[in-house]
Amino acid sequence: MSTLFLSPMRFSPREITEVVDLYASNPEYWRAAGEYDAGSIPAGRVEADLRAEAAAEGAEILLARDPQGRLNGMLSLLDRHPVDGLPWIGLLMIHGDLHGRGVGGTLAGMAEQRFSHEGREGLRLAVLESNAPALRFWESRGWRECDRRPDIAHGRPCIVLHKALSA
Prior knowledge:
The mean pLDDT is 92. The chain has a seven-stranded mixed beta sheet with strand order 1-2-3-4-5-7-6, sandwiched between helices. With 167 residues, it is of the alpha+beta class. The protein is built from five helices and seven strands. The chain is globular and about 35 Å long. The longest helix is centred in the middle third of the chain and has 15 residues.
């Protein structure tokens, strides 16, 4: 896997267009999640949703680019979850054309390394119960189920996964 560079999303029109393309390249996820119509993802709504997410205390939306500047994926991070105080990955999404090429693993590893270097003991995320491929991906990386509960935003059934981190 080639190198990825992370940068905070600045919400430029170009970035919004790129993220809409990223979202559109993952129709199976959106069909399972139900947040957007997989065939028509409105840029204005994507921008509004991401701005609201980024406005939360300790939240960060990062864009992952390859050395040529192409958007390969995005990572939404939360420094401290309001319930457990741990850092969380809110969303890790890779462009659909890049699935199976190691991009997701690289991006997940970057998030894990970041919080490990900060001395954090663990990292969490939630996977929709209906998203079996995502669950397999995270479990193959050493993440383990620690809870089941609906997500805060939409009430969808989720599996909460935890990964212990070491400095």
